[in-house]
């Protein structure tokens, strides 16, 4: 199946975070397009990741992702259940409403940017010198600079700066992701890498589609 559509339930703390995400991202369909509703369900399932960072400073990020997922769900109302993300955006391209206030295109653009932040952070935090002092904070700061910072005004940059300073160290992050499971540090790292690989395949297709249609303007 393209997505693991297991019913959402209270988290089983005996299962490590990245093994517990349901629904999760799966293989890309043969036609290379993203089924909209399963994709939004998977995006919503990522949001609790910010809770593992142990700070309410990430609340605005969670609200942003959830808000854009909600906007895309609303834009889909009355449309076919099996509609793809690309078809939804294409309908706005054809109607010349991509820049309209509250458009699905704008919501997807900001959702893509937030997802890009998550990917860059998880990649940097697992591939860098994990034992180095401040490695998690540096990974978060670097990911923010690469993805979101250039699109934010001073006020939002200040909110993110606060969030970056509140992230745990490497040991704290692993503990939060491990929860009450028996998984080792290396198993947690492999879970992160597996998630990033599945997640990236979808993000790359969406990023390419937005760029090809000139929907991802430079700041």
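Q: What amino acid sequence fits the structure above?
A:
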């Amino acid at each position: 199946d393209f997505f693991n559509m297991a019913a959402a339930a209270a988290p089983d703390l005996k299962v490590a975070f990245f093994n517990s995400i349901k629904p999760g991202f799966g293989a890309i369909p043969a036609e290379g397009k993203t089924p909209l509703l399963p994709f939004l369900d998977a995006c919503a399932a990522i949001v609790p990741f910010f809770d593992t960072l142990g700070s309410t400073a990430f609340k605005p990020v969670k609200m942003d992702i959830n808000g854009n997922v909600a906007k895309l769900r609303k834009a889909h109302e009355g449309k076919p259940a099996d509609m793809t993300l690309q078809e939804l955006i294409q309908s706005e391209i054809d109607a010349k409403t991509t820049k309209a206030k509250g458009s699905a295109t704008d919501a997807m653009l900001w959702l893509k940017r937030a997802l890009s932040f998550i990917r860059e952070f998880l990649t940097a935090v697992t591939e860098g010198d994990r034992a180095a002092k401040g490695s998690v904070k540096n990974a978060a700061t670097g990911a923010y600079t690469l993805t979101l910072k250039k699109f934010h005004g001073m006020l939002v940059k200040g909110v993110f700066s606060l969030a970056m300073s509140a992230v745990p160290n490497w040991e704290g992050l692993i503990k939060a992701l491990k929860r009450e499971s028996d998984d080792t540090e290396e198993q947690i790292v492999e879970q992160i890498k597996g998630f990033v690989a599945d997640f990236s395949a979808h993000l790359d297709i969406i990023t390419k589609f937005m760029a090809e249609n000139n929907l991802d303007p430079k700041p």
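Q: And what stands out in the fold?
A: The two ends are 38 Å apart (CA to CA).
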